Structure formats: C-alpha cells, structure tokens
Amino acid sequence: MDVMAQPTYEWRSPQREWREADLSGLPEDGNRYEIVDGSLHLTPPPGYGHQELADELRMALRASVPAGWRVIRAAGLRAAGSNLIPDITVLKPTAPTDGMWIEAVDVALVVEVESPSSRRQDRFTKPSLYAEAGIPAYWRVERGDFGPVVYRYELVKSVHYNLLGTVGPDDPIQVDEPWPMRLDPSAWPR
C-alpha cells in the first residue's frame, strides 16, 4: 500500500499579495521561494550538475575579481517590486556588506544557470525584472551538447537586454562585463 507523505509545513497563503516579510515564515527546505509581482514562485532545489556549473562560473569570476567587488551565490535580490534569487550576483564595490536582501542598484551582473524547472523564468520572467530594475548585465548559462554556453546580455535604456553574444567551450573570449576578464567555459562541467 502506497502512503503519501504528509507535508511537514502547513501552507497559509496571505489574503493579499505576497511580501518580502512573508518569505521568512516559509520552511528552509532547499526550495527557492521568490516573489514575482506579488505571487509566490517555488522552484525545487537545483540538481548537482546545476550547482557544479554555478560554482565553476562563480570561481571563474572570483579568479579575476577586482578589489572591493563581490561574487555571491544565491543572494536575495530586490528587483522591480519582486524578491528574486539569482544563481550568481556580482556586487559593486559600493554595495553594503551585510543584510539579507540586496538592492538592484548595488548589482553589476546577475547570472542564471538554466535548468528544465527554471527555463521559462530564466529566459523571460527574470530578465525582464532585472532589466526593469536597471541591472546593467545579465548572463544565462545553458548546458549545450558540447558543454556550457553563456548568453551575455547588456541593458538597453533600462527597458530590455540586447544579446552581446555567446561564449561556448570552443570559443573563450575576453569580456568587459562586469570587469575585463577572459571567459572560458571549456573547463566547466558539461
């Protein structure tokens, strides 16, 4: 006989739009809880491949980081009236060094590593919110057949992102955002 496990958390949706303060009452269960336009969005924990790829990219960014800049994994970000959690966030040197939620004005780059469960969010929802919040650069990383591919975008008139180009495992390049560095996905996990 199959017995479904009973949830260990009793959900009580607020009788209004979700707010940042509501997030503190949710379980710490590995899921990613975000608020988009007053609605709660739940994403299951990322798989090991996703986490390894995000870690490799974070290490690549940290290897060339100028003094004062910070590269953070899964930081809370206030963006365009929403509370989001990018896979990687690059903070400007002027950003505060404490707190639970980062303001978009303190961010130079956000990176999303795409997974099947986050594809729509990473391609459509989050980039539009990041652009509306004025974040200068956005990278989306996909697992291609031959290795990771980085789609690099720049903000245009605080309205949307334009594709600067892609970087795959066979074409490392010099990039200027968020600082001049060599971007080489060939060393990252497939």
UniProtKB/TrEMBL annotation:
Residues 26-176 form the Putative restriction endonuclease domain. Transmembrane segments: none annotated. InterPro entries: Nuclease_put_TT1808, Restrct_endonuc-II-like, Uma2. GO terms for molecular function: endonuclease activity. Signal peptide: none annotated. It comes from the Bacteria. Keywords: Endonuclease, Hydrolase, Nuclease. Coiled coil: none annotated. This is Uma2 family endonuclease. It comes from Micromonospora endolithica.
